[in-house]
Write a structure and sequence with these properties.
Blueprint (H helix, E strand, L loop, with lengths): L2 E6 L7 E6 L3 H8 L5 E5 L6 H4 L1 H4 L14
Antiparallel strand pairs: 1-2, 1-3
Amino acid sequence: STPVAIVSNATTHAQRVIETTLGAATLDLRRKQVKTPAIIAVGEVVRMRAIIDWYACNPPIAASNTVALGA
């Protein structure tokens, strides 16, 4: 079946990724109570997630650890 990935709260500490199929997406989204905002990817690109998952290796820096530019 066609792969689907739903990414909620992308690039934040609350990021969550649900991988499913097009046929099961509605039921899986309800079961897992996915919150908005969310991005949905459909198709073979979803299968590349394991290869290109840069985010899992580089979680966002906490705001308390950042310095404003020009400060």
